[in-house]
Amino acid sequence: MDLICKIDYIFNRKQKIRLIELTFIIIIGALFELLGVSAILPFINVVLDSSAIESIPYLRSVYELLDFHSTNDFMVFLGICLIIVYVIKNVYISIMYDA
Q1: Which of 31, 39, 56, 75 lies 20 to 30 Å from 2, alpha-carbon distance?
Q2: Single pTM value for the model
Q3: Beta carbons of 36 and 85 less than 8 angstroms apart
Q4: How far apart are CA 60 and CA 52, in angstroms?
Q5: What is the C-alpha to C-alpha distance for residues 99 and 97, in angstroms, rounded to an integer?
Q6: Three-class SS of residue 93?
């Protein structure tokens, strides 16, 4: 509570709004970082052992939902998804640092 009072005293209204905006921008950036790191493990699992598709429920669901017929096609799909996640994450983070 003391910290909030100090922030209220130090910053004017415009600065407080910017502080809240930056907080949300940073939280979204952290979520993108988390997504980027957590997207690597399923890809590595499938590359090392293609039977991981059957043993990991969410991979099996995606495999069946998108109607893949070979594990190689699914590995390529996961690789492309991983690349897309990292491109989006890096673009967002580069924009975030300019904010």
Answers
A1: 31
A2: 0.78
A3: yes
A4: 8
A5: 5
A6: helix
